[in-house]
Amino acid sequence: MISQWQLRAAFAVRLSEMYGREVPAYTTLVDVAHQVNEDTLRARGADAERLGSIGRVTAERHGAIRVGTPAELRDVARIFGALGMRPVGFYDLREAAASAVPVVSTAFRPVDPGELARNPFRVFTSLLTPADPRFFDAGLRSRLEAFLADRELFPPELLHLADRAEAERELTEARAMRFLHLAVQVFELSAEPIDQAWYEELERVSAVAADIGGVRSTHINHLTPRVLDIDELYRRMTDRGIEMIDTIQGPPGRQGPDLLLRQTSFRALAEPRAQRRPDGSITRGALRVRFGEVEARGIALTPAGRALYDRLLTLVDDEAARHPAADRTELARTLWAAHVPATERELAARDLAYFTYHAAPGRPRDGTRPPATIGALESGGWVRAEPVVYEDFLPRSAAGIFQSNLSGEGARNTGQEGIAYDSDWLSGAIDREVLDPYALYEHQRSRSIAAVGRELGLDLDGTRR
What we know:
Its EC number is 1.13.11.93. Belongs to the 2-oxoadipate dioxygenase/decarboxylase family. GO terms for molecular function: dioxygenase activity. Its cofactor is Fe(2+). There is one protein chain. With about 475 residues, the protein is α+β, with helices and mostly antiparallel strands. It has one domain (about 1-300, about 390-435): 2,3-Dihydroxybiphenyl 1,2-Dioxygenase, domain 1 (Roll). The chain has 18 helices and 14 strands. The strands form 5 sheets. A 5-stranded mixed beta sheet has the order 3-4-5-2-8. It has a 3-stranded mixed beta sheet with strand order 7-10-11. Strand 10 and strand 11 form a beta hairpin. The model has no long low-confidence stretch (mean pLDDT about 90).
């Protein structure tokens, strides 16, 4: 029998192999990431594995896909449910970029720390919003929804196997191989000709809308390895002549613990696609929709830490507007140095980041009564703190990656009022609870504190005080 985590690991490997065949520059990206990781591990030793073993980091991937309807997203949830992945977080990209990006998103991933350690594969999944009148007028919305309703992305056999794997949490080897074959196949780039006029009409609204609603299939848009030093990777990819986007999205590189998520990518490549002209003839064209992203993961921030991060984003925007000739990255570094703690201990003391706590092997054993708070226990050497890896995404960074790889700005009618979407709406749309990432991180922390309390004979309440 093949368990869910084994299915998940095998799917990630097969998807990576497929994407490498379709987008050879992705293989180069993975090779450079491996080299950077090996060099970083040699230079930094055990400290390089502070946020995960090198085995986990090497195997780690996140993918990105896009679908058009809640029904399609429900089917996606069934497929990833088979792999032990649940929807976590709600991201509204419609307001996160200057370009028109008419999607809301969630991410499917494992949620148990043990499952994350085995294989942390995650898929950022975006849903088109045809009902938003800022992007789609009534006529285009009607035609778009009719087009989407008329297609089938996922074969019934795949969905049946997915439901079985989710219910039983395993599959026989034969069924597992069939499931993996079908699951990878649906995310391959289709050779079916694209309706040129329809695609271009949607592209005038948004290249993302065209990529979702202008074709009769879906595909993997990018597959992302994890790297320990993203600045060095950016330099090495550029030295190889591969065109990277203009910046690294997320927090600036700095002295101190890595926080949240930093991402960059090589630019979307012009890939040959067959296109059907209005007269029915087939021509060879090219589209730029797929790119190679890479990420460096840091420590998960608490709501207070995230509020500080968001405030710094605004401050950087304000400073950049006041000093247009200044280097934005340097402005960000200066502000971060002034406002963000440079050590894990201070991050924990100010409750800005999540840590788990564990009784220290070398703690006092002379009968001394331990202090009654987790902060005092840590400072007194009774416990050690381990950072919690940020497993999720940043809407502004995701939109920034999308925007950097779009062929145009698209169109948004700011005179119209947008449709409101939120996590509750998305949960109802896919018939599954979209989990709150903060609640997951808080559960990790509080569970570890409770375990420390039991081991030390203390009544700790599970919070950092």
